[in-house]
Amino acid sequence: MYDKIDPEIIVPLATPDGIKAIILGVKSIRPKEVTRLRRSLSRMNVPLLMMPVKEAQVVKNVYCFYRLGLLQETELYQHCQEHGADFIMVRRALGLDPAIGQTREQENGELILNWLLKTASLFFAFRIERDFNKKSVGNVSLGVWGNAETPFVYEAVTSLHFLGADIHLFSMHDEDKDDMKFPCILYQDKWRALQGVDALIILEKQQAFVSIPVKEWYIRRSLMKQNIVIDVCNLYEPEEMEQIGYQYISFGRFCV
């Protein structure tokens, strides 16, 4: 049964009360063979997920520790970084076990903020070096999408401003610009907030950000100076965004 797909590693997410899911580490994924395998395993009534061998090996190594709470979210993230594995893919696989789920400690604000600031600092350094060579050094400008009333957005925006960025914030709230408690230019249209900025940072998973079709992203490419999107919510697939001309950097998938 398995030799048609030729998995390098088979990882059952199993506990004494049964198998919760099956993870296959494969070199390549062929749709027709995946369909056959899903049908053959349908009687087991468990989820099946295929992923690259590297990520499957990480899942195998950490599953028991993570399920028992002996490995925390931050430690899992660091482990993936050290092994060059996709954290989001690993976390998604572990979440197939109902006892873990897809949301347990996933929204770790401190972990995400540290990643964002580290990524932004590298981007700032690259941009400043590039513009210095062109003798046109100026502040980095960032378009930011997120609710200005949430603590995470407040901390992210103030931290990015402290690093030297001019913030163009699109926020879906009614607070008047004069009452803003942190320095930024406030916009009521998400696309106007991107006019002439160096990059976009997506800070929240809101419907207005999730439901943007690829065609519209393609049309809006000329708004920013560079087509760079830094997404802490992993709203889009990197390959899809890159195919239409964006440099897409998302949390857990970009080692810095």
Set down the secondary structure blueprint:
Elements: E1 9-15, E2 18-26, H1 31-41, E3 48-52, H2 53-67, H3 73-82, H4 87-94, H5 109-133, E4 140-145, H6 151-162, E5 165-170, E6 185-187, E7 199-202, H7 207-210, H8 214-219, E8 228-231, H9 238-243, E9 247-250
Parallel strand pairs: 2-3, 4-5, 4-7, 5-6, 7-8, 8-9
Antiparallel strand pairs: 1-2
Structural notes for this entry:
The chain has helices at residues 31-41, 53-67, 73-82, 87-94, 109-133, 151-162, 207-210, 214-219, 238-243, and strands at 9-15, 18-26, 48-52, 140-145, 165-170, 185-187, 199-202, 228-231, 247-250. With 256 residues, it is of the alpha/beta class. It has a 6-stranded parallel sheet with strand order 6-5-4-7-8-9. The longest helix is centred in the middle third of the chain and has 25 residues, at 109-133. The two termini are 40 Å apart. Residues 1-5 have low confidence and may be disordered.
What would the principal axes of the Cα set say about the shape?
Answer: elongated
| Strand arrangement in the largest pleated sheet | 6-5-4-7-8-9
Distance between the termini: 40 Å
Fraction of residues in helix: 25-40%
